[in-house]
Amino acid sequence: MNNSAIGVFDSGVGGLTCVKELIKIMPNENVVYLGDTARVPYGTRSKEKIAEYGKQDIKFLEQHDVKMVLVACGTVSSVLVTNPLFEDTSIKEYSGVLKPAVRTACAATKNSKIGVIGTPATIKSGAFAKAIHEVNPDVKVIGKACPMFVPLVENGYTAKDCVPARAIAEEYLEVMKREQVDTLIMGCTHYPMLREIIADIMGDKVKLISPGEEVAKYAKKVLTFNDSLTDRTEKGRLELYCTDSVELFSENVKSFLGENINGEISKCNLF
Questions:
Q1: Is 223 helix (H, G, I), strand (E, B) or coil?
Q2: DSSP of 80-121, one letter per residue?
Q3: Which among 121, 139, 147, 130 has a CA at the least distance from the CA of 183?
Q4: Are residues 142 and 206 in the same domain?
Q5: Is-contact 215 18, C-beta < 8 A?
Q6: Which of 75, 183, 232, 234 would suit a FRET pair with 50, their CA atoms being 20 to 30 Å apart?
Q7: Is residue 1 one of the residues assigned to a domain?
Q8: What is the domain range of residue 120?
Q9: What is the pTM of this model?
Q10: Does any domain span residue 10?
Q11: What is the predicted pLDDT for the residue at 262?
């Protein structure tokens, strides 16, 4: 039993897809979320800068005495594979979104063709492709950088009938349709907010994998195995932090989590 909170961070609001799943499957757990909205997106930064930002995010959550940290950012998760971001921290349990998403995708594919969409940094790293081939070397991986998706989500252009969002998505996903992937990893936690558009373009025969949801499920397995779930019977508390406008962040929180989920929102400084 451990009543400390679960820490979650992302470059912006995308990691709230992970928070939503955590609240759904572990409603009694406290959650501390950090969205580094002042520096979003991370996906166009250098590997060194991404690692620097990731370490700052982790240090912030460490100050909140969290029992586990979920790196709900595809870009930082891809850097985490080769960079020991948790080395100088007291945090023992952590996970990026990459491996949980990859395991689910490899189990789901029927034709051994998996698509990965992500930020430029994530796709350039090749981390998803490497992880997939460690599970199944026979899978063909098709990667595509989608740099405009994060700005679309951060600015609220996510509706199924949004003409600019659909036009951009159709251009990005053309290669996935051409290659006939049957499983698509939305390799950035922002992208599930565009799920309706992506699903409509790809068709109902393509399985969409949300890394934020998968890492939340993985967290429950780890905490259960370690006997580290809370013993609280009441609903858990949600603390939300951002590094830029609280007003804009609040609007995105409502969009991601819904009107019925309440959480304290505060602005913080990481540097």
A1: helix
A2: HTTS-TTTTSS---EEESHHHHHHHHHHH-SSSEEEEEE-HH
A3: 139
A4: yes
A5: yes
A6: 183
A7: no
A8: 98-211
A9: 0.93
A10: yes
A11: 75
Are 196 and 243 members of one domain?
no
- Active-site entry in 18, 106, 146, 188: 188
Is residue 72 located within the same domain as residue 149?
A: no
What confidence score (pLDDT) does residue 218 get? 97
268 classed as catalytic:
no
- The per-residue pLDDT for range 172-189, each reduced to its tens digit, is 999 999 999 999 999 999
Half-sphere exposure of 217 (CA within 13 A, CB side): 12
Single out the residue of 9, 1, 187, 3 nearest to residue 89, CA to CA: 9
DSSP letters, 154-187, are: HTT---TT-HHHHHHHHHHHHHHHHHT-SEEEE-
pLDDT at 261: 76
Among 18, 73, 146, 242, the one annotated catalytic: 73
- Is 162 designated active site? no
Residue 96 CB-half CA count within 13 A? 24
Question: Which of the residues in the chain have pLDDT under 50?
Answer: none
Q: Which SS3 state, helix, strand or coil, does residue 220 take?
A: helix
